[in-house]
Fold each of these.
Amino acid sequence: MGLLEGKRAVIFGVANERSIAWAIAKTLHKEGARCALTYATERLKERVETLAHSLNSEIVLPCDVTSDEQINSTFSAIKDKWQTMDILIHSVAFAKKEELKGKLLDTTREGFQIAMDVSVYSLIALSRQAFPLMENTGSIITLTYYGSQKVVPNYNVMGVAKAGLEAVVRYLAEDMGPRGVRINAISAGPVKTLAAMGISGFGEILKRVEERAPLRRNITQEDVAGVALFLASPLSEGVTGEVIYVDAGYNIMGL
Ligand code: NAD
Ligand code: IMJ
């Protein structure tokens, strides 16, 4: 018997087979969960459908999280097909590439708004829709990064967004806790995904982690998926509002 037998998960953030959300989807499926996948743009439709079919996933829906209309139709489709759900995975972030270099000082109002809307407000909007479908139990999981706590070169507006995201996790934990719905963040170490492509100096960052992290290695998408499984399952029934680091221990070091 899997840890998630009979559970239903809705997963946001699969773009390709390297996506952290994809590793999470595979792990939840292996433990018996049924998975619905969503994709951000038509360009991703075919790839995400192919990945979904490999998990016998019966639900694949378009959802750009900046659109209230698309969020509404996604959750009404879930309600029609499943009536209830148990797990929500939020593995979504975006900032304009110009904002992820140079100085935070040069962040534009528009660049700030986009990063906050896609990467932070979306967790509130998706949670609000998922909450009524979760019946006296439920687990919501989002992905964050250490650049929310300490200055990481070039992370800039995304660091500010992730700080906001982590605060959202705490406030929503209090809002939803009384009905048994939990929400937590996983703070992942750097991983080579689409979201890490073209980031200048990413190779050096990976090397630095390998040299300095207590485990002397980088993490994989599967390392993240293992902790997501724990957070999605009854093993973590007493845990909510937390940020759990999956970074080979990098964040504990002082020097
Ligand atoms: P990824 O590019 O595979 O995933 C990011 C996802 O966000 C994509 O699927 C993309 O389609 C989606 N997205 C962007 N704009 C969207 C929109 N408007 N509507 C709906 N979806 C949208 O990369 P990833 O590394 O798997 O990133 C997933 C999460 O993990 C992100 O929150 C990221 O900040 C976080 N994270 C990544 C790393 C890393 O080093 N890769 C480290 C820590 C945290
Ligand atoms: C991203 C930028 C700068 C430094 C970075 C990252 N470091 C890490 C990341 C050190 C690990 C990856 N990360 C944690 C993210 O959250 C990435 C988010 C992201 C990436 C892109 C790239 C392509 C694009 N917009 C993006 N928006 C958000 O156009």
Note: The radius of gyration is 17 Å.
Amino acid sequence: MRLIVLGTVIDTDDMRQTLDRLVELVADGRARRISHQIATINADFLVHATDDPEVQNILLGASHATADGMPLVWGSRLLGVPVTERVTGADLVPEFAAVAARKQISFYFLGAAEGVAQQAADILIRDNPGLKVVGVDAPTIEAVSSRDPGILQRISDADPDVLFVAFGAPKQDKWIDQNLSQLDVPVCIGVGGTFDFITGRTTRAPVWIRRIGLEWLHRLCNEPRRLWRRYFRDLTYFPGAFFRQWRAVRYNGPAELTVSTSQAKDQITVDLDGALVQSTSDRLRAVMATTQPGSFVVIDARNLTHVDSVGLAALVDFAVAARKTGGSLVWENASTKVLAAIDAASLTRFFRHCAAPAEDLTVDQPPSVAIGHSR
Ligand code: UDP
């Protein structure tokens, strides 16, 4: 299940399901010669996304996004679509190494201070005999910012299945996004300080502290000067923002939705009649699965009575799929209530207001509100 939490997507899968998904994405990436970007999203990252449209678009376009912070776990619970388990980069990489050793999936480690990625690789190979680490690189900050082509060349020569990038969020995720089309690596994951955790350079909180959701407090006590500002901002931002989204998307009415489509050349109009919510959003996903790549999608929302966090995720995925194949997605006739839900979920910028829709797009009078994807 995928939902929107304050302008980013979160997949609710637990660790086991996440690992299965990563194995599937490696196979899919290999078969179709495409790259999937994976994000591990913590609270700080989410705040970045609200300030930076580039980060938001990257996160919304991720093939998989795990909840790597307790605020996201709490937020998903409040929104009625609970994340089963917090999946951090620091937990995911060692678990994935065990699976990769069995399934012949190769890794490449990029980033962290000189020697750290190599040491992390050595530890994972020691603990998982048979694990193939086909490359390790710790480029300098200057080499990364000057876009040294040697970095991409070395990855390309090593030809890994999975690339872990540890430049810290959101720098690593921007780097992956900017280079994805040239990388030809099936799965790329931003992993932040994970190599430092694996090598013991940074110590994690004891498991019981992680379980009760206080790992952030442990980190704050260890690095107060660097982190107090970050946590103060998070603690003051999240409660009100979660409440606002919850109030705008909560729904107890009938879960009924009819999705009908009409096609004219490369434009498909999708008429939503009823409530696009957790139990009905698969109907929209079914239409998405059969839509031609590169389509110009018009969501006619005149009969859309309600949209919740899961329904919004389906719409975001539809917009991303259209955009990635050269098409786009716009809305027509959304009610004030639906627009308020989009706004409370921090998606207004993503679905750009567009009063004068593109050619081909029929507009009803009085002028409909059309929101299109902006990038
Ligand atoms: N790092 C890097 N190159 C950079 C910036 C950071 O290799 O240009 C590394 C840094 O050495 C550390 C990792 O990125 O190993 C993650 O840093 P941080 O703990 O800030 O990331 P977070 O987990 O908070 O996203």
Note: The first helix runs from residue 15 to 32.
